[in-house]
């Protein structure tokens, strides 16, 4: 689904896409927090980081829908939106939670979503751990 069309349905408007430096800040901080919390992931640090570095991230403005979280993973276009003004240098549980959704997104070769939610880093060795919901 087109990002602007999805945002419009949510009562939001795109402000701008993250710069590569902003994506790097989020990716490095989230990867560090994940590997610190789950030392078993240390050997997969580079894979987790690489996946997050390719995530499309956007700042958006809420145009009246007060029931939407300030950070959301949009599975339709495989991106994460952040409400304008959020400090991306302060990685909180919600940012980690939405990044986990991005990491766990499993798609078929035609880019159709197969599943989301279980802790499964596709090529990585850990499967079936439901930690994304535990990050809240």
Describe this structure in words.
The chain has 136 residues and is α+β, with helices and mostly antiparallel strands. 35% of the residues lie in helices and 20% in strands. Mean pLDDT is 82; it is low at 125-129 and 131-136.
Low-confidence stretches are 125-129, 131-136
What percent of the residues sit in helical stretches (DSSP H or I)? 25-40%
Calculate Rg over CA atoms: 15 Å
Helix tally equals 4
SS class: alpha+beta
* Distance between the amino and carboxyl termini: 27 Å
List the helices and strands and how they pair.
Blueprint lengths: L2 H8 L1 E6 L2 H18 L7 H9 L2 E7 L8 E4 L4 E5 L9 H12 L1 E2 L5 E3 L21
Parallel strand pairs: 2-4
Antiparallel strand pairs: 1-2, 3-4, 5-6
Key phrases:
136 residues, alpha+beta, four-stranded mixed beta sheet, two-stranded antiparallel sheet, 6 strands, disordered C terminus
Quick description:
This protein has 4 helices and 6 strands. By secondary structure, it is of the alpha+beta class.
């Amino acid at each position: 689904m087109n990002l602007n069309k999805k945002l419009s349905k949510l009562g939001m408007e795109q402000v701008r896409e993250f710069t590569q430096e902003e994506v790097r800040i989020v990716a490095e901080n989230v990867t560090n927090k994940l590997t610190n919390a789950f030392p078993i992931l240390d050997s997969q640090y580079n894979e987790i980081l690489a996946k997050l570095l390719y995530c499309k991230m956007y700042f958006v403005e809420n145009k009246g829908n007060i029931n939407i979280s300030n950070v959301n993973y949009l599975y339709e276009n495989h991106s994460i939106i952040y409400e304008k003004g959020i400090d991306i240098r302060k990685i909180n549980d919600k940012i980690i939670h939405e990044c986990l959704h991005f990491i766990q997104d499993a798609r078929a070769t035609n880019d159709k979503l197969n599943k989301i939610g279980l802790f499964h880093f596709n090529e990585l060795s850990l499967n079936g751990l439901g930690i994304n919901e535990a990050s809240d």
